[in-house]
Amino acid sequence: MDLLATSGPGRFDVVGSGLSMLCAVHCLAAPLLSAALPLLASEGVELGAFLVLAGFTALVIGSGVRRHRRPGPLVLLALGLAALTALRALEGAEEGPLGPALVVLGSAFLVAAHLANRRALRAHAGCC
User: Which DSSP string corresponds to 59-95?
Assistant: First the structure.
């Protein structure tokens, strides 16, 4: 089943870009919100959000690359997931300046991956 077959080119990339931005806002605001709403900053919520974002993004980008055959979105996806995985893997990274930098960098790469995928899908739809 092709995830993008029943939609306009890149429709799910718009959703993925929005999810990536929401993830960045959540990660950057979590330290401030943890006092008021501790559930939002819990490990379970963090891991669950990361897994949903990573799975959705990989599914959408992978489906798009199968159609347009351009590797750029996959490279951007890999860089974004690597930055966000490094954030989770490095002990104490979230408390120092490295944490917010990795969040912004990883989220920016994921948004860029979705935008590149959407652009490639539209170009592919126009040529074929």
Answer: HHHHHHHHHH--SHHHHHHHHHHHHHHHHHHSTTTTT
Residues 6+ apart with CB under 8 A from 20: 53, 57, 80, 107, 110, 111, 114
How many Å from the N-terminal Cα to the C-terminal Cα in the chain? 20
Cβ(39)–Cβ(45) below 8 Å = yes
Phi and psi at residue 60, to the nearest 5°: -70, -45
DSSP helix, strand, coil percent of the chain (3-state; round to 5): 80, 0, 20
CA R_g for the chain? 16
pLDDT tens, position by position, 36-78: 666 666 778 778 888 988 998 899 899 999 999 999 999 999 9
Alpha-carbon gap, residue 46 to 27, rounded angstroms? 8
DSSP label at residue 8: S
Q: What is the DSSP letter of 40?
A: G
Neighbouring residues of 104: CB distance < 8 A, sequence distance ≥ 6? 24, 28
